[in-house]
Specification:
The protein is α/β, with parallel strands linked by helices and 149 residues long. The protein is 28% helix and 19% strand. The model has no long low-confidence stretch (mean pLDDT 96). The structure holds zinc ion.
Length: 149
């Protein structure tokens, strides 16, 4: 088992879905898994959880394996990776997606005894070079929720 000590928040930096002719394909855990396996050559999706725009949480890489989501500060070795579908450099996080994320984070904090100081946005990890999870990620509301009872 991995000794989880932190959580890193990401966005997919993608649209919420794609039209294939008449068919709408939402971006979800299976689509990201296929990108990571077939385009990056990884063994599995790099994130442990994906949170959809409607707030639904999908399980990604099992928690008995380290992820591939944040090399900076070697967070891959110690932190659980959560990815919100969307590109929050341009779009806002929907209320249900934010709530689903915050509830998931709180649950994981309890389960693995992770203090709020170890819940990080990808771009705020020292040494990272990314905009992830985007300038419109509601950092203030997110941490206020985590700090509330
Ligand atoms: Zn990221």
């Amino acid at each position: 088992m991995v000794n989880w000590q932190g959580i890193v928040i990401h966005h997919s930096a993608s649209p919420r879905g794609f039209w294939y002719g008449q068919r709408w394909r939402p971006v979800d855990v299976e689509l990201i898994r296929s990108w990571h396996i077939y385009e990056r050559g990884w063994s599995d999706i790099g994130y442990h959880y994906v949170v959809l725009p409607d707030g639904q949480v999908q399980g990604g890489r099992p928690l008995d394996r380290i992820g591939a989501h944040a090399r900076a500060g070697k967070r891959n070795l110690t932190a659980i990776g959560i990815c919100l579908i969307g590109n929050f450099q341009y779009d806002s996080v929907s209320p249900p997606q934010l709530m689903g994320t915050m509830q998931l984070v709180k649950k994981l904090q309890k389960e693995y005894d992770i203090p709020v100081e170890k819940v990080e946005l990808h771009k705020e990890i020292p040494g990272s070079n990314t905009l992830c999870p985007g300038r419109f990620f509601p950092k203030k509301a997110f941490y206020e929720y985590l700090n509330s009872g």
